[in-house]
Records
---
Amino acid sequence: MPASSRRPARLQGRVCRGSRAVADGVLTRAELRSAAWRPLFRDVYADAQLDVTHRTRCAAAAQLVLPPGVVIAGRSAAALYGATTVAHNEPVDVLVPTGQRFGPVSGLAVHVGAIDEVDVIRRQGIPVTTPTRTCWDLAQWLPTEEAVAIVDRLAHKHLVALAPLRASARARVGDRGWKRMVRVADLADAGSESTPESRLRVRIVLARIPTPVTQFVVEHDGRFVARLDLAWPHLRVAVEYDGLWHDDPEQLHRDRRRLNRLLGEDWIVLHVTAKRLREDFDGFLDELRQALRSRSR
């Protein structure tokens, strides 16, 4: 006989500790295993009608799983700042102070490192690493391309300033991971407006092509012509990332009209799609190098 899908009023739309709900006589263990409840972590359940987001999981971990001193960090911290998106079913990144024992815990990605008091704040009641400390951890835990893309977003949202971040990274010469932080900070650009644009720019720079200007505005006789994702203004060469929003016919029409104006201004504009970035990036690099060479003569 299937378990009752009971949702007591006091727990509706909430996250609870299963053992506490059973001890209080609110639910039975069989009812917790019913379709009415969704397990988030060991002994932590959410009302199945609750829209569980990554933030929900971060809050549940902070309130019901993490011991004092352990904080939300990395991609999860960046998601709480609105600088990236993490799926609801992905592990929550947490940082455990060196010397403190915790984990492993299913549903958590546990990292260990030194934490200073100034590295932690509370955001909507959740203990989380500061944006600056989050950048440091991202640089250590993620591939460079992905870390830079998130640091770009933190900088674009004015949560970190890149000049102090770079200075701070260089001030920690000799600390474990300082070179990775310097690399990520040097590659970051607050002008980037999307994660794909960030990744494209980083891959171009890592291919030893001169760093482009982000969101460059082209004007003619003081009048706006276009704004370009990536540009080498002195050579009049630009790269545009074509995202999924080009399925919108009106947006496609506006973009192509903008491209025509740019061609009238004697620009070379190369377009990159997600498919090309994934499957033929070397071919695109050859085209970009050729375009830059043709304008350098």
---
Amino acid sequence: MSKNKIGIITVTKKGIELGKKIKKLYLEKYNKDIVIFTLEKFSDKETEIIEISIKDTLKDIFQKYFGFIFITATGIAVRSIASFIESKDIDPCVLVVDENGNFVIPILSGHLGGGNNLTKEIGSLLNSIPILTTSSDISGKIAVDTIAMKINGKLESLESAKKVTSLIVAGEKIEIKVPENISNENPKGIIIISNQKNIEITQIFPKNISIGVGCKRGTSKEKIISAIKNSLEKYNLSEKSLKVIGTVDIKKDEIGIIEASKYFNVDLKIISKNEIKKIEGKFQKSEFVEKTLGIGAVSGPCAMLASRKKGEIIAEKIKYDGITISIFQEETRKDG
């Protein structure tokens, strides 16, 4: 599920002026929606009202936004978000900007949440000073979770990433092993030759797996989730690499598929029959499906069309009880 919105929180008239300035400048350069929240006495048609308190306003939206910019004292921001913080790999980023726009400080999810990058962007727009306190950034070195964020990947473990990042910060030699083309040479194992007794290892899962789903009407989310899990397991693929689920337009209201995409926290892309007809010749056809839907294949074309299309089908059709699953693996290097 994409997080495209940024929330600006402010409780003063001067803060609203700065918030509107940030919104205008940011929208001119970047493609993210910005919503300004403020007290009712300062609110107008460009803002949303903080009804009871900042904390109450954040309760239902905190994990649904990309990030929040507090134009308040740092203490207000910290107290407002404290009870909603879960983990650095899922929390939105949170920044604090002073009313004069002199300083921008990330206080939550600087790396994985994109807070440090957003800080630099806002700082550049306002000609402000970005205050970065993460050790990798102040030393001019890149952290493992930053690498994961930049390639839209998923960390195997926050703990192992932290250990390897600490070695990077300390100036130790670290190697990044990436196949020439992950879709063709995805390794099943790695041999490390070293005289070091202890070697810290971490893994980043590229988000390059697209799943196509076809199912009978009314199939439960539990069955679809189980089918997807079993299919990934069959091909030794991690759920952490799942990027998108695709299905045909006549299934756009299929609750089981919608809920399955929410369970895996990925986008659900609806593919039109007209799009499928253009490429269905590349896939094994089903006479029953063709008579029923007017197209010869569903899950395979949907898996391909839901992705960026460059790559390969690694499982064209895996059948379960009333469910068909297809797996498409994108290239992650050569097509950028």
---
Amino acid sequence: MTAPGPVSGGFAFARVARLGKRARAPMKTSEKGIETLELEEGNVLRAYRCPAGKWTIGMGLTAASGVVIPKAGMVITAQQSRDLTKKALAAKYEPRVALVMTGARQHEFDAGVLFDWNTGAINKASWVPLWARKAGAAAISIKFRLWNGGGGKVLPGLVARRERELRILFEGMYPVLGEPSRPSVSVARWVLQLDFAEKIAAMTAFKKLGYPVGLDSAAIPAAEIRRFQVDHGLTADGKIGRATLSTLQRRLDATEKAKSVGLFSGGVTASAVTSAAPTGMSDITDWIASQPWAIGAAAAVIGLWGLWLAWQYRDVIAAKIQGRAPRLAAALRSI
């Protein structure tokens, strides 16, 4: 038997190299995974401010994504949004998940990516080592479900989201958002996966801010949602999605914080000074209230705080003056 020549040997080596290279190809989020991400995050094609005030676009992309710097008035297409999402996944999330979930099947990998996109915690989540050790669904689920809160509170939306991710992780069952049962230009459409309690909370908030939407979550007047969207510089499409709900949350947060300093409601008084103080400081606030000079100093500090809040929530101020001064409102939103 003659030894293989350099040509056949080279061919064999090249074939093995190709196979090895193919085996080492990094995993990517599947199309189903990206579609699920869109269902969870929404896909907003016009830049908006998230509840924290950061400009956001697409499937929740901020400047921190490294792939886009959203700005006031920025508009992208649905294809651009998907391309940017894929770039963000490839740059940050997919490599992190691949590193800690070696050997994952596609649906397991997708579940890890969806979890990490929402929490940024795939490297420290205690369920991941259990998954790697094949500890069993019950043990993994207990740890997975711990990631259900924010600000020290359990959030129903995150509870439901974790359950959807668990179904993907263990069963490969991806959620599907069906078409509305009675599409109508007169009825607003929910475009995120929200439970009944979340919808009621949003409807109550709209009503509190002067947008009467009724009590039936399936028959919200689209005209009221469009009016809210116009007032806040959003795309007036009558859809209750991520941008609309984030803006609604900012309105609520601004109102709550403004109350503590008398912002928009008559200035700073001695009672406002004491009520703005943290709990557990009653002796200090009583003393401040009895000292005229201390009241003045505290009022000055709170006044500066009020100005800072006004700047942080200038988009909310823009909404309040939209009808009277649309140009000024537009200028405030552009900053």
